[in-house]
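dude i think i finally got it to work??
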Amino acid sequence: MRSSAQQKPLDLQKGLFLIRYDSAEDPGQPPKVGVTVDAAVAGHVEFLLPPGVDEPVMWSPGGSLVLRILAPTRVIVEVTPRSPGGSVAARIQSSQLSTDPQGLAWSDQVATVDLSDCRVLGHLAGRGDTLVSLGEWLGGPVTPTRIEGISINWPGRPANFNLRHAVRVGGAREPKVTDFVELGAYSGTRGRALPLVGASFEVFGPAASGYEITADALFLGSPQMRVTGPRVVISGPTGREPLVGLRMQISAPQKATSPALAPAAPASQPVVAASPAAGPDADGMERSNKGRVRVFRSRTAAKV
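look at this
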């Protein structure tokens, strides 16, 4: 593939990450790969570079960078051809570094997780983005409002506690199910008048053992519903009613269970490679990978 520079955003949670330049389609003139961050979030990222190296650039396959992420942050991976019109086909791997990837250091006496800074963002029709705390309504019985998208933000999330969600987007056509996304990512639409007609939420990870989500939901023309569990699904009677109210809570565990029974978080995630558009994954969910740069998911990653 011969082209100009290609860019791909990569959303990383708090932690230590290894970015590795695995391979290039043209080994004789491999493109260079750089990692940058926006100035507004530069304080959240530390690049750990070898002595004498001043910029986070990998010049050839086998190169690697280490990033220390202090808060959920988006970084940009840029692949630049070695010469004008040169190849930008490269495969880059991202993996999280940990001294305890299985969470075995987490004690059976699970400490209470601080949820005070966990917020739910909803894009409400006619009102725009609205941020509420756990236990507060987006829309709801008093002011029902069509919800068009959701994001969950939790700056103080413990390393072994994960939370993700997916939504069903309605409209004139058949409702579309989105992929699961983790904290900080947005699911749904803005400015297209397409309501959500369903959603799924899940807590997982060693520190989340025993924790449950309680979701109160109100769908247009339907009674208020409540579901509780580590993974919950909300939907109206026919699956097409617009979601007009949502209230989420996460409850502390009554009794901690063994960390060995909790699902392990994915250890690595290949992030960019030159490729044509991709079709549906084995889990049946469409992943949009248009253009010349594609996001790959590790086969060992937890399926949603």
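Confidence is low (pLDDT under 50) at residues 255-268, 271-304.
im so relieved honestly
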